[in-house]
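Justification of resources, computational component.

The compute hours requested in this renewal are based largely on the per-chain cost of generating structure records like the one below. Each record pairs the submitted sequence with a full structure-token output. That output is archived, and it is also reused by downstream analysis tasks.
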Amino acid sequence: MSKIKFGVIGMGHIGKRHASMVQLNNECELVSVCDVLDKHDLGLEEINVPFYNSAKKMLEEESSIDIVCVCTPNGLHAEHTSLALDYKKHVVVEKPMGLSKANCEQLIFKALHVNKHIFCVMQNRYSPPSQWLKEIVCSGKLGDIYNVQINCYWNRDDRYYFKNGEKHAWKGTNDLDGGTLFTQFSHFVDLMYWIFGDITDIQAKFDNFSHDHSIEFEDTGLVNFRFVDGGMGSINYSSSVWDSNLESSVTVIAENGTIKVGGQYMNKVEYCNIKDYTFSELPASNPANDYGSYKGSANNHPYIFENVVDVIKNRKPISTNALEGMKVVDIIERIYNLK
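The structure output for this chain reads:
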């Protein structure tokens, strides 16, 4: 089979990473990229493919594209995914898939009708501790789950929301960012759903302690709930940690044992005491994505693109499908509806 041809919409930090992942995969080819900003302002002189300022024009003129990567601001993900589906392209969409469950349902409906995949980027699933936790829970070794506590404490200060003294164009806005759970912590909501299932009986409190001048939503939240499949849980999060990220962790208290996966990015097993089970050291997690003044989640994007290729070539099933992407949005939307 010939190389799978990609186009990228949105050439910020993540769009550049997508373009790089395509170029590093010998089964892929980067055909074109698109952004509303000028190519030189984005520092894209070394990308030797056609550059467009209009996604529609790119899709009209670059008919050979098989897959479109959507790396635009959160509030544009659904719009650009829908546009790519209009041109009958597969889509790799960064988190979140959209900012409402209704948007995501419309995309799933359209994708089914044009027989195309929507790949949702949830790269934390590939970290060794995440895969180990999934296996331990699903194997039944822990027995009944009693309590799951997820703590996400990161730094996102003016270095993130301002550049050269000017407020960022979309970060921190309700319509294009959507909220701290969507932008900073949706990966951990995804891990929770992937491992423990859906939630109900949600209660929450929110506040904006240190970002009144920079964001239109909360920087801190306390959320508690029950799992549909049994047990209770909580998500405690903040982007107000001083200077640098503190931790992203999940603690599980269950019938037959207790686990804590912690570190700054849920990247190591800090505690494991399970009945009739001996823990073996896991392979090291990949380092976090480093954006200079701040750090994000684990650099697992290569696995995303390997899976995309495997699915298109009918070698493996999709790792994060559109329904799962929609469920993460649904959970966050239900939490935010309590504001």
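Residues 159 and 292 are 10 Å apart (CA to CA). The radius of gyration is 20 Å.
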